[in-house]
Amino acid sequence: MRSGSTRLAFAVCFLLAATAGCATPATDPGAEGTAADTEPRPTPTVSGDEGAALAAYTGMWDAVVAASHGDEDASRTLDDHAVGGARELMRTALEEAAPGGAADGEPVLDPTVSVESPELAVVDDCVDDSAWRVGGAGETAGPRRVDATLIHDGLAWRVSELRIWEAGSC
Asked: What's the number of domains the chain is made of?
């Protein structure tokens, strides 16, 4: 049986590496800038639908980080912020991470949000996971592009699609 830290390392590697392999090609795979420090995420300065969509996106990441630190209730929190393929991708990581949470630190997000319609928003991010130590060997950490699609289901914004690119993609 695998130890908790091994499961956690596998889950995070799976989350970050496997999703990068599933990303579809784009004409501009990079975004300018990277997060330079590991200070806590600032409160979003946008309001209305943009602020709510951004809160759903960051809430999804907060649930995954909490799971990596051993919070077994993070899976329920994830349901508040993600649906469909994005939820299943993150849930797979949570199932692997929940038994032993051995991580420290957290990824640094640098998202921008665009509300395309009353039911659709897009988040472009450059996630730097260099300070998110999850154990294990052979992991590739660093700034990586993340593309998220959010839908408004009539009650709240939720992440529905998620693409995480390889380290160094932003």
From this structure: 1
* Spatial contact of 104 and 69, defined as CB atoms under 8 Å apart: yes
Q: pTM for this structure? A: 0.72
d(CA 57, CA 12): 18
pLDDT in tens, 50-75: 999 999 999 999 988 887 787 777 77
Contact 160, 82 (CB under 8 A): yes
CATH of the domain at 92: 3.10.450.50
Structure tokens at 167: 């380290």
For residue 5 the two structure tokens come to: 């830290």
In a domain, 169, yes or no: no
Q: 28-54 burial string, b = 16+ CB within 10 Å, else e?
A: eeebeebbeeeeebeebeeeebbbbbb
